Amino acid sequence: MTAPRVAIIGAGVIGLSWAELFHERGWDVAVFDVSPDAVPRDRGFEIAASIADAVRGATLVQENGPERLAVKRELLAHIAAAATDDTIIASSTSSLLPSLLAEGNSRAAQILVGHPYNPPQIMPLVEIVPGPATRTDIVQEAERIYREIGKVPVALRREIPGFVGNRVQKAVLDEAMWLVTHGVVDAHAFDVIFQESLGLRWASIGVFEASHLGGGPAGLRHIIEHVGAALDAIELQRPDLSESDRSAIVQQVESAYGVADTYPARAERRDRITRAVRSTVGAEQRRATLYALDLLAGSVNRVDPFTGTVTPLHAGLTEAPDGIVVDPAAGTVTFTCMGAPDAPAARGEEPTFTRANGSLQRIPLAGGAPQVIVERGSFVTGKQLAADPATGRLYWSDREGRGIYRAEADGSGLTRLVDTRGTGPSEVEDWCVGIAVDPVAGLLYWTQKGGADAGQGRILRAGIEIPRGEDAATRSDIETLWQGLPEPIDLELDTAAGMIYWTDRGAGPEGNTLNRAPIPAPGQRGAFPTILSRGYREAIGLALDPVHHTAYVSDLSGEIREVQLGSGAERVIATLPGAATGLALTWE
């Protein structure tokens, strides 16, 4: 698979930072600078002889020239001359509006601002600023690419002088200078006040969320209604600085923090602290990305829950993909296939499967042809798939084969852990569908759905390991936690909160729902579940985001729905063309 290409125009600090980021993520990087010696020769970059040479074949061009409008326009004109209709043309400018940059350019519809924060290798944000003429698909693709290389892109809805970050920075700096100039506080004391209060809070949760929490249970509404008048009475100031005022402020800052000869040490300290803060905050504020299977279209897809953008990673599967797990560290997407169906099915319906031709297959996270890791025919119909993140071990249900299986991360060591054949009053009541694993407690959970809309569904639990002296068919540690459910399908655990979630595709009012209940203690039956969401058309896949208190549910109509677990608010984030089955969630 050919690596994507990026063109970096300008090899200053910002340009080379971009080059390193793309190179680290496996991109081919071409760098052009009017001074070729500015480009390191030991980093694996292509040193382009001209802008046209750098741009040729590039998916994205990142311009990093001097912050002068005439210079940037000239660079962008050369870039446009060598670009194709799909090339993203991004400028790293921190102050120039994209409408001004694109004025008179034949590819104005492809020009936007991709403004990084300094130092770019540490600060994750990229402000994407479209011009009035910028195409929507160019903005969306830029956002996807920046996220792919590890940045946190935010697309503004329209251009504005200073963008967003610089406007906020100016507002705070104006007030700070006014307070210092008028003797309210000195420069160092202001920094202490900011660092030890708002700086910590805003770095962790942002301005609006901090205000929402500051209002207590009633949130921002309480702040506006009860504190708003007092806040409005505070008159903010903009400094009108004389030359002596400016000199006095600079002297205070230099006295507190040093001058040019101490810059390297101070910058290193800043970066060390920033990395530490970002590491902690980033772990709590990871962005969710969904991966979804389409049974009828035979596709593996990446879904952006925020924009609804669906990016196919592979299509054309004819073996009914159903369960999915993603391993970002290994760069893989693994999925079960139910195998070739007995006959085609219509949209919104699931075909029948009776032949033993199920398999486990895997594709690269970036997309590509599938690799079979558990051979076809090793089981009958692979359903929900789960993984132990510590070992990479894979666990899945076999519906018509009526059992639970495990394999190592590479597909070796296939082991049948549970054999439900002949354990129920009818064959269909032995069908295993959903699965969840609690490797810390050493427990497996799975669903047996029963007949369609028959109210025969069960959720069961057993140890991950078969008790000594027993086998998959005779193991004595299986507990029935719930029974008489409409038709339970996929499972998810939130072990930190002690909760289990499941989808149900059975008849209403309890069916075609998303459900939650406390995880039962050993030897106890499950409590009556809480229905969190209704109205699905054959609810199937389930992915849980406990960090943001959100669940995602797919159904056979192709819809993928987001459900806010606290408020109950929900929305359809995407609709696949066929029948949506398995879901998996990762954080970026």
Task: Give a brief outline of the structure.
With 588 residues, the protein is of the alpha+beta class.
Structure, explained:
- By secondary structure, the protein is α+β, with helices and mostly antiparallel strands.
- The protein contains 11 helices and 32 strands.
- An 8-stranded mixed sheet has the order 3-2-1-4-5-6-7-8, with helices on both faces. The chain has a 4-stranded antiparallel sheet with strand order 11-10-9-32, with no helix packed on it. The protein has a 4-stranded antiparallel sheet with strand order 12-13-14-15, with no helix packed on it.
- Strand 29 (550-555) and strand 30 form a beta hairpin.
- Helix 8 packs across helix 9.
- The longest helix is centred in the middle third of the chain and has 22 residues, at 263-284.
- It is globular.
- The relative contact order is 0.07.
- The model has no long low-confidence stretch (mean pLDDT 93).
Report the helical percentage: 10-25%
SS-based class: alpha+beta
Helical region count? 11
Global Rg: 28 Å
Poorly predicted spans: none
Give the strand order of the largest sheet, numbering strands 1, 2, ... along the chain: 3-2-1-4-5-6-7-8
Shape: globular
Determine the strand fraction and express it as a percent band. Answer: 25-35%
Cα end-to-end separation: 23 Å
